[in-house]
Amino acid sequence: MKIAIQNGRVVDPKNQIDQIADVFIAAGKIVHVGAPPADFMADRKIDATGLIVAPGIVDLCARLGGHLATELGAAVAGGISTLVCPPDLNPPLDEPERVERLTQEAADLRLARLLPLGAITQNLDGERLAEMAGLAAAGCVAFSQGKRPVLDTQALLRAFEYAATFGFAIWMQPQDFYLSRDGFAHDGEVASRLGLTGIPVSAETVAIATFLILAADTGVRLHLRRISSAAGMDMIARARAKGIAVTCDVGIYHLHLSEEDIGFFDTLARFDPPLRSAADRDALRQGVLQGVAALCSDHTPLSHDDKLLPFGEAKPGATGLELLLPLALQWGGEAGLPLMDALAPLTAAPAAILGRDDLGCLSPGARADLCLFSPDEPWQVTPETLSSASKHTPFLGRELLGKAKITLVEGVIRGR
Amino acid sequence: MNASPLVSLPDAEAQCRVLADLIRPGLTPDTALVGIFSGGAWIAGRLVELLELPDAAGLVDISFYRDDFAEKGLHPQVRPTQIPFDVNHRRLILVDDVLYTGRTTRAALNELFDYGRPAAIELAVLADRGCRELPVAPDYCVWNLELPRSTGLILSRDKAGRLFWEVEQHHA
Amino acid sequence: MPNPQLNAKGELTHLLAIDGLPREALTHILDTAASFLGLADREVKKVPLLRGKSVFNLFFENSTRTRTTFEIAAKRLSADVINLDINRSSTAKGETLLDTIDNLCAMHADMFVVRHAASGAPSLIAEHLRRMGHDDIHVVNAGDGRHAHPTQGLLDMYTIRHFKRNFETLTVAIIGDILHSRVARSDICALTTLGAKEVRVIGPRTLLPVSLANMGVRVYHDMEKGLRDCDVVIMLRLQNERMNGALLPSASEYFRHYGLTSRKLALAKPDAIVMHPGPMNRGVEIDSAVADGAQAVILDQVTFGIAVRMAVMSILNGKK
């Protein structure tokens, strides 16, 4: 199948392309961007006039809950062609067969590409190493504990060493278990006023310090998930400057919201890690802008009852697959960025974190994953406009700009 | 309707003296006065002096007993009710400025009974303007008049402390 | 963000926290309480303001004392009072907080007095009532987690006003476990709203929240410095579970540094009053000589508490 996507504005951050051009696809791969190659006879032509033609979004973290088909459908509805799923499912992804079953099930749906993270420890217990090599062979792209801690620092060191042996990457959410225990809001002004149990910034920075030291000692490739504080972002930027192989990401909501959005106990504004101060939020924006951090949806499916509870008892998280693109565009607009720079943290940056040069770009030979979107199309966030089974977001009822129209994975239009 | 019959309003201070004269013949040693806040309380004060009564007048604020509380809410300036004597076995004269629907009188009676069981209660008013909604009648009244509901009759007090009448038109 | 305590007309429809209420709303409640105070001396202590209304005391956390004061207040207003002590077992049955509320709404409740261990639970209930169209049902927060205890804050203000008249000249010290105290938060908000000259909090770092300065208070760790020239001293109860070594080494070490003794009280102004929300831990946060001394107004607080709660309930119910 040969496809020509015509007359769109092609924006490819990795290759620094931003021009009206055609994209040519054959056998699920990008052939060329620009003038038609000789002898290229398109079987299908897609008119992209008025649309942005970008690499498919690579989402570094989305939880899918019990609705694999719905949520992978929501991903392609949001322009996401690849998503990474953490291992703390029930049961956890600590056995190769489980990983194979999940990836096969996802592949059969022919929606977005699902890349699983394997468990670092058996049953995520933080003590006994899981079969990382077997899990990698089954399709795990890196290893993580999800939201579960490794309390024993020696076990952590062993895990880093073992992963480094095989060149596997370790993805950790830096949040010290003891400093964050029982807490559910940023330990700042709003938590003090509302009497919410706080999680101090030190919960993040203490964990980052530990991880950075062990990563430097072992040489493991370290990715830190969901940075929430200015201090944390600064530590990572400095470590990178010193040549430590560390990357990080930020949840899209943390780029827009702060502790103030909790207002009067709005459970929709409960996140893990918590929304922090406006100064922290601004530092996260700066970190993404400077390429220190990639963006992810941190999509967390929740049921209606999960948020209808007192703030501390409500579950953290929000629906994100369909808001990732418009909220990234909004950030880019507010920061006065060229479109290419606003799309980099959704495409080239996460692909680089995954070590994949065949994703997140339109280079010849790369997988033909594309997101065709209308950048200025307004739409209102309502339970009806979201195709995800999870409808909870602080942006409910708000109007956003930017809507994915066509999502291709390996040269095939997915969904709808 | 115009307020033409009220072009010249009567002198309220003079009416207080007439009211005292009406009350005086029936006075007993255990008579005490209770004024309804605010106009009735002023009049009761005048009457205590004119009748040379031994006890100061009691003061009731019926805010907590109003039957329209649910619609109108609590008045922001509720005055504490003050009854400086034991009401049990006393002959009380309840004093108000204007008798209208009778609801205020009922609320005041309810409140007085929460202080004890008086031997008797009589009602003294300066003006009875009609439009009764409850079976209430004054025992002592100086001025009988008929006013439409759109007209308000209000007893006020000037800077020198003199009582005077005012008329107000309510527009529906 | 609209204040969930006020309706579209700006009238008080729930009492969830002192935070966000204008000074006029607070003084209106205090003024109304003053007129209720006289009722206690009458032969019949009731007034018919809430006759025929059903007040549900929903105590998800045990507190016989607070529940009783609300019960007395509601009964003096002639309301019907239904006490529900909802322990963990009924929530363990799977009925959520809002299920419980829906059930009680179906029983034609007019007011919920809510005590809950989770900060924000009364706000959640108020928001739920709004969503369900029950605009005529009112919520009074009787203490939620660490967040707020607005009627305690108001009765403390009533007590201070009763003894000291004018807030503008007062220096008030709040001493003890500020971090976990909903009373402290409500007192701080009320004092700053009413224009107290200076509000001080005194305690060890482990018992103070991180951003107190933003709440308009001065922080002291040394009780002797903090007490100097104070007009009002508010002691807080130290919960037993805080003394187990995690936040404080021992009750006796706490008492040495932050317990109120006659010697330390002498550093405050000679006519300073001593307050405590009760129940007191004698010998932990307060010495018996002070608790029973001439400067203590702790029992006055209890008396004023009834009148303040009557004022709150009648003001909420008098609005349509």
Walk me through this protein's architecture.
The complex is a heterotrimer of chains A (416), B (172) and C (320). Chain A has helices spanning 68-77, 96-109, 132-137, 153-166, 177-180, 189-194, 201-218, 230-241, 278-289, 324-335, 339-343, 348-354, and strands at 2-12, 17-26, 29-34, 44-47, 52-55, 57-59, 80-85, 113-119, 142-144, 169-172, 185-186, 198-199, 221-224, 246-251, 293-296, 370-380, 399-409, 412-413. Chain A is α/β, with parallel strands linked by helices and 416 residues long. Chain A has one domain (56-358, 376-398): TIM Barrel. In chain A, strands 1, 2, 3, 4, 5, 16, 17 and 18 form an eight-stranded mixed β-sheet that branches. An eight-stranded parallel β-sheet of chain A has the order 6-7-8-9-10-13-14-15, with helices on both faces. The longest helix of chain A has 18 residues, at 201-218. Chain A is globular and about 65 Å long. Chain A starts with a strand and ends with a strand. The model of chain A has no long low-confidence stretch (mean pLDDT 97). Chain B has a five-stranded parallel β-sheet with strand order 2-1-3-4-5. Chain B is of the alpha/beta class and 172 residues long. Chain B starts with 11 loop residues before the first helix and ends with a strand. Chain B has one domain: Rossmann fold. The radius of gyration of chain B is 16 Å and the shape is globular. With 320 residues, chain C is an alpha/beta fold. Chain C is 38% helix and 14% strand. In chain C, the strands form two sheets. Chain C has a five-stranded parallel β-sheet. In chain C, strands 2-1-3-4 form a four-stranded parallel β-sheet, with helices on both faces. The longest helix of chain C has 20 residues, at 298-317. Chain C is globular, with a radius of gyration of 19 Å. The model of chain C has no long low-confidence stretch (mean pLDDT 92). The chains are: A alpha/beta (416), B alpha/beta (172), C alpha/beta (320). Chains in contact: A-C, B-C. Chains A and C meet through α6 of A and α5 of C.
